[in-house]
Design brief:
Radius of gyration: 22 Å
Order of helices and strands: EHEEHEHHEHEEHEEHEHEHEH
Number of strands: 12
Number of helices: 10
Strand order of the largest sheet: 8-11-10-9-12
Strand content: 15-25%
Oligomer: single chain
Structural class: alpha/beta
Distance between the termini: 33 Å
Shape: globular
Length: 391
């Protein structure tokens, strides 16, 4: 098989020929990678006044082949000229320079990259993703749910009894309901805290999922909330701290509007009580022990709920240009004499777990019907940031 391919819209005359052309291109990228080089893709977009040529190197193209297939098809249909060829030898995992090439401080999105990440970063992240989740990166689907409760895993496995599971115990086990073209669901039990939330979303991001949703529990902060009510986040108070030095706190982080519309639709259909508002995310599980200071911040931020992961996932969704949302369920009200105690919590969990996960899945299914090739994400991309098919 040759190691270079060039094609334009003139190279095919019907849909079947185009699909075969794109499949050949993806086969070539995988072959180049497997034989020891990084594949490089250069795209000339004659319609673009400001970013006519974008280029980028890839690693492990088989892990997100669905994404490459979709984006290359879009580009070629629009008239782009595409070239694929070997770039340079792959760095070994023990090469000291590998982290120099994966350093996000060196990002310059104005270089008009074809892909957000360097190939070294992709290699590292996908290896760690397998380590943390116990499943292959290629098993991950386009729609990723994060939870920190085994009970949501139980519900997921009941809904999808044939889902792919980890083969052994791991830190953040993942479960995959696989569908053609990776249009299924992946659920990752990330454990507790913003550090885990950052770790998993750092690595999942290189797979370019179509959505990430946090499915968790929270402390209710308002008088007129009851245990079992839901909270649909419209903003986040970033008191977790783990990304403060990477993304300034004065950058507004808001969830994807369309995902929120679909989640709200599910809440309304089921006639559930819920609040829209800010979720306060803390790194301190025992924040009640510094109550005065925390409550002052809660009041200033107008937060309606408190948790330990939502703002972290949301911030990484923003950084990595992935549509995201958060749907939480109130498990306790520590400021109102209803702390999270073992016996009462177990009763609450049993009553809420099925509905919670099903609402999120139904909302994403609606999203898939309305936008089968992914939600619009222009709102979380910079004005000078074309990436794949952007103008």
């Amino acid at each position: 098989m040759k190691k270079r391919i060039e094609f334009t819209k003139d190279a095919f005359s019907n849909e079947e020929e185009l699909i075969n052309l794109i499949e050949d291109a993806c086969d070539m990228m995988e072959q180049i990678y497997e034989e020891g080089d990084y594949p490089k893709v250069t795209v000339k977009r004659t319609w673009s006044e400001h970013n006519p040529i974008i280029t980028g190197e890839l690693a492990v193209p088989s892990a997100y082949r669905w994404y490459l297939t979709r984006e290359l098809k879009r580009l070629v249909e629009k008239g782009a000229e595409v070239k694929i060829f070997p770039s340079r030898p792959r760095l070994k995992s023990n090469d000291p320079s590998i982290f120099d090439n994966a350093d996000e401080d060196e990002w310059d999105i104005t270089q008009k990259k074809l892909f957000l990440f360097s190939p070294e970063r992709i290699d590292i992240s996908l290896d760690r993703l397998k380590h943390y989740t116990g499943t292959k990166p290629s098993d991950f689907q386009r729609y990723i749910l994060f939870t920190n409760y085994d009970m949501h895993v139980e519900v997921f496995k009941d809904l999808f009894p044939d889902c792919e599971e980890p083969e052994h115990a791991v830190q953040m086990p993942a479960y995959h309901h696989k569908m053609p073209d990776n249009k299924g669901f992946s659920l990752v039990n990330i454990g507790v805290g913003p550090s885990n939330a950052k770790t998993i979303s750092d690595h999942v991001a290189v797979l370019r999922p179509d959505a990430m949703v946090m499915v968790g529990h929270c402390g209710g902060l308002r008088n007129h909330q009851d245990i079992g009510d839901f909270v649909l986040a419209t903003g986040f108070m970033r008191e977790d701290g783990v990304l403060d030095k990477i993304l300034p706190l004065n950058i507004p982080i808001t969830p994807n509007h369309l995902l929120n519309v679909y989640l709200k639709d599910q809440l309304d259909q089921r006639e559930r009580n819920y609040r829209l508002g800010t979720v306060y995310t803390t790194a301190n599980r025992n924040w009640e022990f510094i109550k005065r200071r925390t409550v002052e911040q809660i009041h200033v931020s107008r937060s309606v709920a408190i948790d330990m992961e939502s703002a972290t996932v949301a911030t990484n969704g923003y950084r990595y240009r992935i549509p995201f949302a958060t749907l939480l369920c109130v498990s306790d009200k520590p400021l109102h004499g209803k702390p999270k105690l073992s016996g009462e919590a177990q009763t609450f969990y049993q009553n809420s777990k099925n509905m919670h996960l099903k609402m999120v899945i139904d909302a994403i299914n609606l999203s898939k019907e309305m936008y089968p090739e992914g939600l619009p994400n222009a709102s979380i991309r910079a004005i000078n940031e074309p990436l794949m098919g952007g103008s």
